[in-house]
Amino acid sequence: MYLRRIFATIMLGSLLPVAYGQEENTQQAEEARLDRLEKQTALLEKAVKKLNNFKVSAYIQGQYQHGEKDATLKVGDTNENREKSFNRFGIRRGRIKFEYREGIGEAAVQLEVNDKGVSFRDLYIGVKDPWTGRNSLLAGVFNRPFGYEIGYSTSSLESPERATVIQYFFPDERDLGIQATLQAKTGSPLDFLKLEAGLFAGNSINKDTDNKKDFIGRLSAARPIGAQAYWGAGISYYHGFVFNPTDTEYRMEGKQFVPVNKGRTGTFMKREYFGADARFGVFTLLGKSELRGEVLWGWQPGIAGSSKSPNYSKRPDDLPENSLYCRPFTGYFFTFVQDIGRSPFSAVVKYDAYDPNTKIGGNDVGAAGSHTSQTDLAQHTVGVGGLWRINKNLRLQAYYEFNRNEKSAQVKGYESDRADNVLTVRLQYKF
Fold first, then answer.
1. What's residue 47's pLDDT?
2. pLDDT at 396
3. Distances from the Cα of 387 to the Cαs of 158, 266, 349, 410, 423, in angstroms?
4. Is the dihedral angle over the CA atoms 211, 175, 54, 101 positive or is it negative?
5. What integer pLDDT is reported at residue 14 of this predicted model?
6. Phi/psi at 276 (5° precision)
7. By three-state DSSP, how is residue 150 classified?
């Protein structure tokens, strides 16, 4: 018995180092596993942080439009029978935007995809100041800093399209250029002010075609009024040039355009716009009520057949129809949006007026020797509609436009008001 006890003690003593070794190896393996897991977690957190810097957003607008016989629709082809009303289906907008922000830098690309093809809208890089994050510099193609509606996304716009004067003078809303934005730091007495100013090619999203550059600037302010209301306002200025491919330009004197021979081709005419905008909103038991308004005035060079700003991809040819006419203009519009209580419905009313030539009107337009035409006739639109925000992604919009034009017995087809009212029904999906 005594010998068996001695033998058991010796065996137990010899096994203890083995057990301790196994325990030590297990502990080391567990520590190694935890270390690997910690590294993997750090890599995963880094990847998630990178993904958080990357944002993709998109929206698609499918719509049905019905127009009277003289209407111009935004989808589909022109009227195949000018004696009858017509209708079209189409994709008005299909846009996808890629944005990346890290540190003080940012970049964005936005593509337009619809039934007319594929193009781009935004294409820019930006840098913010590292101290307040409220001052920045943008370079590329982006929204022009003029007025309020230009920068208001068409995915949120309560009317199907922007105001007429905006569509005419700021085609595609964007331009190629460089812009600085200045704001005081949050909490300072002037933190409600924002100054945006830049130099632009003046040719919309198309390539730069000449040595002249346009200046655009806007000073705006916005503030809440307690918790139940808010206001905003801004003033804008545009100073630029339009290329004239001919040796003749036309300027208004009295009630007619007078040709001025410049002696050479390739001169420029100045375009100059002034703008003011304001908005006010209030929250009541009836729901949110918002009223917005803008007015623009100044001088716009355009050809005989159109008062639109240029957005061509190459300089126009030396042809008589491409000669420039400098027109004094006025454009203004007001939008009222009333939410229906806490429901997903809203009612919309918009008034939109554009006079491309304030020096002439009525039967004087089109008079012999005046060099004026339907391009110089004023137009205005009353739009009424409704919005149904079905959910956070889906929105249904119905809108009817009563279009009215200035009349002149001297302009064929404009002796009376044209039949060009338009109904738009649009379903939008945004994500």
1. 67
2. 98
3. 7, 48, 11, 41, 14
4. positive
5. 52
6. -140, 140
7. helix
